[in-house]
Hints:
36% of the residues lie in helices and 29% in strands. By secondary structure, it is an alpha/beta fold. Among the domains are: 85-162, Dna Ligase, domain 1 (2-Layer Sandwich), CATH 3.30.1490.110; 196-349, Nucleotidyltransferase, domain 5. The strands form 5 sheets. It has a 6-stranded mixed beta sheet, sandwiched between helices. Helix 6 runs antiparallel to helix 8. The longest helix is centred in the C-terminal third of the chain and has 25 residues, at 287-311.
Amino acid sequence: MPNSELIVGLDIGTTKICAVVGEPSDTGIDIIGIGTSPSKGLRKGVVVNIDETVQSIRKAVEEAELMAGCEISSVYAGIAGGHIKGVNSHGVIAIKGGGEVTPQDVERVLDAAKAVAIPLDREVIHTLPQGYIVDDQRGIANPVGMSGVRLEANVHIVTGAVTSAQNIVRSCSKSGLDVSEIVLESLASSKSILTEEEREIGVAIIDIGGGTSDIAIFANNAIKYTGAVALGGNNLTSDIAFGLRTSPAAADKIKIKHGCALVDMVHPSETIEVPGVGGRPPRTIERRVLAEICEPRMEEMLALIYQEMERSGLMHYLGAGVVLTGGASLIPGCVELAEEIFQMPVRLGYPRNVGGLKDVVNNPKYATAVGLLFYAAEQETAPTRFVAEPEEGKEDGLFHKIWSSMKRWFGDVR
């Protein structure tokens, strides 16, 4: 199979790095390869050690290449973390010519909407249209071909720290990969786990990762809000390691195998074995002790997420409730606890419309990586945007590769 037909998503997370190779199909995406590696160079979604990050990326990519039987040269990379901020903006232009909206008019109104003050240490990652208005007619998804004299656009602008994005691209480049685009991870997850009905009537997606919990709110088939809380599954692991007096590695295994977010769900007779540290023998304790450590921390995380959602002022949009995804959402009792705190329906988000190695990726922790494939498929089949062509004859060195990868969104702010 030609490599040009394949697309690759690279989820660069705090606890794991995951590369997924897929091929667009009539029903969605066929997964043909997947590779994962423990992430050692990131903290709270931000690269803190490029060399360790490069090693983790290479290991995940090599595993995916071996399974897919192909060579990976370019990826769609995810970005997340507490530095991600979203803002809603509005743009207005006059329609030129005979009063018919052209694709160039759409580009101009989006450029007008992007004309907002952004600090020098931040850059635009996405400009996501929420809807268009032609004269006074609202709720238009695609205004091209319509008649009018004034075109308006409501957009959601996602910004991130310049250095965080640069370090992701640099890590990929040192791994021998070209970054086709940097994608907000909560946006990518939404592509793989949300239904059209949920997007229409309003839903919040909460991606509880290792270092951060990312939030995105959708309504009327458009993204309305993005944010993040700097707490994740690693905080729970640290609490377990401290409370049970064991190593972080052992605490993580205990969390995955025996963790529970609600004490009431644990039978009093259940016990677990806790490995000792420093040569000490393992101990046997009641599983309820573990649940008593997990429940307060999960309750704190979900309460902070709820406060962040309330600050958005969009809670009244959430007719479909909340969808949880990410590795930490798999802890038993998490959905029930979230329903108590949010006072609305909550479900786990599993990748949808997936073929091929479906059983391998049928897990909320792969929602972002699979979602990157859906995002990539949409971008590669979308009509070409009216942008200036790059100059020919440029030297294709490492710096030029990095710049070429980033100029797509570095050039968004002018």
